[in-house]
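Table S2 (continued). Query chain:
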Amino acid sequence: MENKYKKYLGDSVYCNFQNGQLILTTENGLATDPSNRIVLESEVYDALQRYVAALCDSITLAEEPSENNSDKLIRPKNSHDSL
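Corresponding output:
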């Protein structure tokens, strides 16, 4: 049975929703390859959202030219030095 909540986020990372919890997994589809599983309870998800909000207050996402023109770099606000 297909899980309608499981979504690919990129870089071999998937997100799923089960029993009121977000579940992040890393996998590439091969049974013999390593995988990881992180279960985010609501309190942890709330803390992650606060972290991202605070991070967004202090950095800027800047698009840089690349082969596929989709890479994003994180740069401190009011700074010309890349991280």
